[in-house]
Amino acid sequence: MTIINMTRLDSNAADFSTQLKARLAWDASEDLEIHQRVMAIIADVRNLGDDAVIEYTNRFDQCQFKKAAELELDKEVLQQAWNSLSAEKADALQTAANRIRAYAEEQKMQSWQYTEEDGTILGQQVTPLDKAGLYVPGGKAAYPSSVLMNAIPAKVAGVGELIMVVPTPQGESNPMVLAAAYLAGVDRVFTIGGAQAVAALAYGTKTIPAVDKIVGPGNIYVATAKKLVYGQVGIDMIAGPSEILVICDGETDPNWIAMDLFSQAEHDENAQAILIAEQDEFLDQVEQSINKLLPEMERAEIIKTSLTTRGAFIKVKDLDKAAEVANLIAPEHLELSVADPESLCRKIRNAGAIFMGRYTAEALGDYCAGPNHVLPTSSTARYSSPLGVYDFQKRSSLINCSAAGADRLARTASVLARGESLTAHARSAEYRIK
Ligand SMILES: NC(=O)c1ccc[n+]([C@@H]2O[C@H](COP(=O)([O-])OP(=O)(O)OC[C@H]3O[C@@H](n4cnc5c(N)ncnc54)[C@H](O)[C@@H]3O)[C@@H](O)[C@H]2O)c1
Ligand SMILES: N[C@H](CO)Cc1c[nH]c[nH+]1
Ligand SMILES: [Zn+2]
């Protein structure tokens, strides 16, 4: 039975780029409505603090919180969750944590400096953030893996305090999420989510501390809130509803490709899954696999909505064209399910993470390959990178002039300052001329 007819685009068609843009775009009217709703939530949290956080949490997550103190989980609760975990689950979390940490260690930026001939020293001092806010999504699924992906790079960077927020729909917290927070060394956990959690971390309330930067993925409300509080706090990137783009040469098992598309579609009705291939027959086979496998899925309804409203099959004339289209889409995840992924990879400029070869299912990266799964979405991979240790570090420039160095630099600075009619700058520099 055909449940889903995938929207098909042809990169040779005259109106291809208009059609592709329309498929990638988020409906503008809906976008505006969400923007306004999120602005109102942020304003309420700024004005009413904990009361607004409690009211929105009770409303959106069907909770029954009465006092702000109830929003925080005790450290013992986290430890208890870890202690009660089955050996299999504890092992899996530990294995994933070890691999994520090993990869993160490679990303750590170091301070550096060099000395000029006259003794002047120039350099850069790298310091960790004092306080980071970690958003762990939890509306439609629980994400222990996102706890590790957020917290471990922050720990490797040496962040002073890690404040995690995670929604608990119906007041139910997920034991594996709490255990992961314990394992990763999160300092404080608040059971709140959505735009209200982002606003609380940005502006602070009596109970929830303001942080320096908010990182982590979330749904459209979370991603919009992060955009709106940027400036008050730092943010890592726009990491909204998940996306997958698969380029296949037609030689991978169609069931594998269908399941890879499902793996991101099952996150959210707004998730986006796209397949690019050269042969109509292969696209037909994957569509048949989709319709065969969908009824077996626990989250069939979410997958169906995602594939129907945001999914697409794109036919291209060759793999060069596929790479060109992928660069336009700039997907969060890009699978290169082809015989020679290395050469195709060299043509890719815009993608959050690239999964190379038929065996590298994107799902492996979601949990335990090592690289971070918090990745830029909505084409922001054109200018953003995966979450990493560098997101929790900042740089200060270092300038330490010797007397001879100051004399030399002051002569140049004086001319430039007078050229800008900034006399105090010029005279300040000139005092240092011998
Ligand atoms: N890009 C990444 O790295 C990455 C990683 C993991 C998950 N994800 C994505 O994160 C998202 C998780 O979404 P989720 O919904 O499961 O959890 P979530 O925690 O992001 O969102 C749940 C919150 O949304 C808010 N909300 C829900 N309906 C609302 C409404 N009508 N008005 C205002 N606020 C509302 C509520 O406050 C709720 O607490 C998915 O889209 C998934 O694809 C992305
Ligand atoms: N695919 C998500 C990032 O877009 C990450 C994730 C966590 N768990 C499963 N998947
Ligand atoms: Zn995923």
TrEMBL record:
This is Histidinol dehydrogenase. Its EC number is 1.1.1.23. NAD(+) binds at Y135, Q196, N219. Belongs to the histidinol dehydrogenase family. It catalyses: L-histidinol + 2 NAD(+) + H2O = L-histidine + 2 NADH + 3 H(+). GO terms for cellular component: cytosol. It is an enzyme of class 1 (oxidoreductase).
